[in-house]
Amino acid sequence: MMQLQVAGDFAAQHFWPNAPVKYVELGKRHRHVFTFRALIEVSESGDREVEFLELADMCTAHLKNFLRDNPGSSCETLVRELHAFMARLGRPPTRCEVLEDDRCGAVYAPEKGGCACCAE
């Protein structure tokens, strides 16, 4: 199987609704550089089947807008949104991740057809 990696990053603010006392500062808007990566299947004999730079730009713009409109979103929410967005484009990732400051975050690797956006 041949896979293509699509990746990008963007600076944005978010907050943790109902953050516990220990992390009270995270309950206020704070800035991160969010990093995302996604793997998509392509044909083994193909060459430039997908323009990954264009797809990365589309994913970056979508995630920035989503987080702007949903500032209480977690990395788990963002990674599910990334997967759903790419699935709507006809390229559901086999694996995707969203990290805060390229350190900690969420990884999503649904079984084929095992997620709501890909189930037919």
From TrEMBL:
<protein>
    <submittedName>
        <fullName>Uncharacterized protein</fullName>
    </submittedName>
</protein>
